């Protein structure tokens, strides 16, 4: 019985033999063997569970890195992307290159700030980011104009239809003593959701800060904007 097959160049890259393009050169040069047979076809796929892959006669296996979570206090003006031709400032221009392969578990837009979670565990990143896993995300939102707490609560709980999507909030509440500032909790994560919901009510957002994801609260990490903390994935459980 065959398990999940992957492309040979990806497997070789996971083994630390270089980028996928570099490993394609190794394949074309006939330096790779699968189960003792030389291969040169770039489209070759393998079963990592059963196939034995060798480079220059030595068996190679994927490098297993310890799974980690990176807690990052994102500043305004930095894009949640590894690279973008229109924006020189990305979060990875702040973070050390050591974390260039970490996945972003729930993005913040360019003009938003606060708690951002990255991890080198792809499965965990999906659990944190995807709405089906029910990870609450909490925000502090400051408005330029306040339509009124009751109107906002009614609209957010009933649902707002925007661009073919129905947008909900689990909770929205005016922060005591803070004019025009609301605490918003989401269980879903549609693109620019909070800004779109308030804009629909005629209230533009002037500041949006994420302060919590699941049980992880930004204030407990004591991080200034632009600072980060590397920790174990067990912190999410």
UniProtKB/TrEMBL annotation:
EC number(s) from the headed UniProt entry: 5.4.99.-
Biological process terms in GO annotation: enzyme-directed rRNA pseudouridine synthesis
Keyword Isomerase: yes
Record's keyword annotation contains RNA-binding: yes
Sequence intervals crossing the membrane: none
Pfam families membership: PseudoU_synth_2 (PF00849), S4 (PF01479)
Chain ranges of the RNA-binding S4 domain: 6-69
PROSITE patterns: PSI_RSU, S4
Residues in the signal sequence: none
Keywords noted in UniProt: Isomerase, RNA-binding
Superkingdom of this protein's organism: Bacteria
GO molecular function: RNA binding; rRNA pseudouridine synthase activity
Top EC class, one word: isomerase
InterPro entries per record: PsdUridine_s_RsuA/RluB/E/F_cat, PsdUridine_synth_cat_dom_sf, PsdUridine_synth_RsuA/RluA, PsdUridine_synth_RsuA/RluB/E/F, PsdUridine_synth_RsuA/RluB_CS, RsuA_PseudoU_synthase, S4_RNA-bd, S4_RNA-bd_sf
Annotated family: Belongs to the pseudouridine synthase RsuA family.
Family matches, as NCBIfam families: pseudouridine synthase (TIGR00093)
Name of the molecule in the record: Pseudouridine synthase
Organism name: Leptospira kirschneri serovar Pomona
Classification lineage: Bacteria, Pseudomonadati, Spirochaetota, Spirochaetia, Leptospirales
């Amino acid at each position: 019985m065959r398990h999940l097959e992957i492309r040979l160049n990806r497997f070789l890259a996971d083994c630390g033999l270089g980028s996928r393009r570099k490993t394609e050169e190794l394949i074309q040069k006939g330096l790779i063997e699968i189960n003792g047979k030389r291969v040169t076809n770039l489209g070759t796929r393998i079963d990592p569970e059963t196939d034995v892959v060798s480079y220059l006669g030595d068996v190679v296996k994927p490098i297993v890195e310890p799974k980690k979570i990176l807690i990052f206090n994102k500043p305004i003006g930095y894009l949640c992307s590894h690279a973008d031709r229109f924006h020189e400032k990305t979060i990875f221009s702040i973070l050390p290159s050591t974390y260039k392969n970490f996945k972003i578990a729930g993005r913040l837009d360019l003009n938003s700030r606060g708690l951002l979670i990255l991890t080198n565990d792809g499965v965990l990143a999906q659990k944190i980011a995807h709405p089906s896993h029910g990870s609450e995300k909490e925000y502090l939102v400051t408005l330029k104009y306040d339509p009124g707490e009751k109107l906002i609560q009614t609209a957010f709980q009933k649902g707002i239809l925007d661009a073919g999507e129905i947008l909900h909030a689990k909770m929205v509440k005016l922060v005591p003593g803070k004019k025009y500032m609301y605490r918003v909790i989401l269980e879903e994560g549609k693109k620019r959701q909070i800004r779109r919901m308030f804009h629909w009510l005629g209230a533009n957002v002037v500041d949006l800060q994420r302060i919590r994801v699941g049980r992880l609260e930004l204030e407990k990490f004591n991080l200034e904007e632009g600072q980060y903390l590397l920790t174990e994935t067990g912190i999410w459980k």
